[in-house]
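Sequence design from tokenized structure. All designs in this work follow the same two-part layout: the structure record, then the generated sequence. An example of the structure record is given first.
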């Protein structure tokens, strides 16, 4: 038995067999073939197997994810049946006497290159379809299994170098009991999604994919950040006991699900949840969320080959608003860029994507995308308590432009007789230091602030939060961060506005006492963190936390702040 130390990213303990979600080696050599008829037969067999596999994936996608996701695989099946692709491959095998792998790759690459250079967006999308099906057929020619997280049908723990947001969104909680990755941190998207799915996760292990084989028995300890490989019965028994203790603790927290969030001295704060899809609502309600503080709409755009339609978006927003009743739902407009890409937009590669053409910057230039989303939101607004925030705002002019487009679309809909809510608050995410510094100016024009600490911290400290080598600089408790947070909260309150936080810091048990003391109004976190946070806040005296926060603002290091919090809250 051995164990690997990583970063505890999502609480809980999972025990199951390993499922390696690792891209296989699809390399091959060019070969001369004597029996070309047999080689064509081998190619046809790989085609047939691929079709059967895609039909099963399509049917599963339809059941689990809906018709729009399933349509992607219908397109892939059409490509596999297209004689304009299949016939040239067979001709190349016969004429050039080459192996099927080589003929497939050469022919597919020619079509991919041709389609990618076309101005027609539909034809550019076909290039992606050809690339995907080629990889599938090639895998069967080579006798290598492609991974597909949505097809997992037994209890497993996922082992991966990393998980993309779309990978994580496909994980079925019934079977995926936890996961571990080589890279990432507590604020990576895979970690955030794990908390939304309520599955234990350990990230940043550096070596999980090297050390763990398919079928190994694995324990993921999302409390201590450890991954145990083929443990002894003694270790399994120990973790089964810890697993039960954690479940018992969750049962105690669950008793607070219908309570409001009050401090020991009677100060009310709002504990809201961060969500990615309407499917996350069950977790918000079960965990006593007092609202949705961040609806990450980008997941509507990911894992597909074209933009979602206005009606598709309307249905999703309506479902969330209706599901939350009169509780507030804060929707973030499209935040694509950085580590979240949409291949079908064909955006140029950037040296520093986190500092590049993303979020509101993309939306203000690609206004068709932005206006479609705003129309869908406006149409859905009458079904609940909608608030909208723009991400990555750096200047007042960006906010003003976004608001002007919002008002234009609102007036158009009203003129068409569409019902729109009377009052929709428009706010911004504060994740750029310059915006925090000028919060007093923004506060005169926005309706609310939501502090996005995941980016605010990395931009303030000039440290990529995905890079383990500089992870020591990701310091939520650094006095510089606390001072920026205080500036934002004070600016909001001076104008009679509210300030929330939707970064992972909002659910951090060391940060919560400081944020309560700084006067934060709304704490938005992974739904699974809400009850634990509510239990903690009930034991804190706000007036005492104000003294702690004011002292922390004058401290020199993050370590000093952490020690002060522990001294004040743990006796």
């Amino acid at each position: 038995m051995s164990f690997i130390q990583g970063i505890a990213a999502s609480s809980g303990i999972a025990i199951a067999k390993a499922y390696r979600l690792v891209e296989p080696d699809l390399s091959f050599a060019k070969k001369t073939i004597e029996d070309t008829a047999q080689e064509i037969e081998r190619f046809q067999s790989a085609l047939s197997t691929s079709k059967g596999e895609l039909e099963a994936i399509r049917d599963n996608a339809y059941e689990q994810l809906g018709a729009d996701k399933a349509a992607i695989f219908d397109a892939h099946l059409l490509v596999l049946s297209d004689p304009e692709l299949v016939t040239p491959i067979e001709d190349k095998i016969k004429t050039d006497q080459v192996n099927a792998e080589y003929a497939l790759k050469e022919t597919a690459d020619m079509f991919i290159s041709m389609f990618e250079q076309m101005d027609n967006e539909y034809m550019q999308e076909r290039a992606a379809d050809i690339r995907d099906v080629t990889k599938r057929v090639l895998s069967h020619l080579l006798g290598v299994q492609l991974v597909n997280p949505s097809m997992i049908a037994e209890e497993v723990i996922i082992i991966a170098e990393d998980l993309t947001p779309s990978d994580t969104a496909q994980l079925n909680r019934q079977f995926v009991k936890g996961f571990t990755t080589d890279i990432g941190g507590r604020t990576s998207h895979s970690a955030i999604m794990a908390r939304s799915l309520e599955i234990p996760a350990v990230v940043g292990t550096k070596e999980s994919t090297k050390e763990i084989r398919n079928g190994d028995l694995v324990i993921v300890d999302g409390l201590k950040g450890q991954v145990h490989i083929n443990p002894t019965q003694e270790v399994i028994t120990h973790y089964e006991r810890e697993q039960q203790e954690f479940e018992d603790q969750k049962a105690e927290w669950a008793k607070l699900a219908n309570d409001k969030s009050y401090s020991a001295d009677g100060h009310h704060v709002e504990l809201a949840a961060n969500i990615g899809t309407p499917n996350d609502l069950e977790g918000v309600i079960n965990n006593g969320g007092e609202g949705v503080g961040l609806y990450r709409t980008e997941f509507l755009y990911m894992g597909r080959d074209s933009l979602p339609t206005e009606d598709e978006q309307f249905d999703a927003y309506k479902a969330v608003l209706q599901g939350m009743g009169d509780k507030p739902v804060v929707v973030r407009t499209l935040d694509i860029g950085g580590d979240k890409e949409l291949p079908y937009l064909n955006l140029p590669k950037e040296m520093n994507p986190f500092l590049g053409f993303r979020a509101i910057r993309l939306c203000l230039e690609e206004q068709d995308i932005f206006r479609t989303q705003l129309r869908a939101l406006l149409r859905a607004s009458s079904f609940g308590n909608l608030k909208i925030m723009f991400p990555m705002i750096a200047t007042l002019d960006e906010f003003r432009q976004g608001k002007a487009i919002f008002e234009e679309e609102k007036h158009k809909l009203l003129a068409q007789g569409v019902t729109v809510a009377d009052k929709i608050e428009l706010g911004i995410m504060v994740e750029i230091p310059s915006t925090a510094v000028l919060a007093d100016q923004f506060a005169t024009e926005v309706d609310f602030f939501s502090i996005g600490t995941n980016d605010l911290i990395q931009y303030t400290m000039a440290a990529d939060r995905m890079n383990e080598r500089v992870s020591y600089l990701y310091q939520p408790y650094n006095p510089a961060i606390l001072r920026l947070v205080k500036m934002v909260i004070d600016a909001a309150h001076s104008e009679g506005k509210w300030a929330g936080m939707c970064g992972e810091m909002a659910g951090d048990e060391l940060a919560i006492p400081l944020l309560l003391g700084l006067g934060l109004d709304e704490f938005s976190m992974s739904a699974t963190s809400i009850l634990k946070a509510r239990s903690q806040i009930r034991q804190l005296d706000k007036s005492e936390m104000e003294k702690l926060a004011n002292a922390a603002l004058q401290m020199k290091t993050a370590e000093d702040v952490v020690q002060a919090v522990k001294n004040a809250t743990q006796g």
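The first strand starts at residue 2 and ends at 5. We note this feature because it recurs in several other targets discussed in the main text.
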